[in-house]
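1st attempt posting a full record on here, be nice pls
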Amino acid sequence: MEITSEWLAPILTSLAAIIAAVFTCRWQMQTELRKILENYVSDKKYKAYYNAVNLFYTIMNENKQGKVQTSPISSDKFEVMLKVKQDLFVYGSDEAFRARQKQTIYYP
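the predicted structure (as C-alpha cells):
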C-alpha cells in the first residue's frame, strides 16, 4: 500500500501541472489571436473612415472649384461611394453608417 501512495502523489501532481500548462497555453493563444483580429479590424476601420472623409473633401473641393456637373455622378465616383458605404457597413460603427445613409438619401 505504501508503494502505491508513493507513486500516486507525484503522478497526480505532474498531471495537474501538465493540465494547467495546457490551459495556460491555450488561453495565451486565444488572447494573441484576439489582439491580432482587433488590430486587423482597427486598420480596416481607419481605412474606411479615411476613405469616407477623403471622398467628402474631394467632392467639396470639386464643388468649390466648379468642377461638379449637374448631371448624375460619374461612374468612378459612384463606385467609390459604394465602396465607402460597404466599408462603413462592415467595419464602421452604427452611427457612422447611419450618418452616411442620411447623407446618401439627402444628397444622392
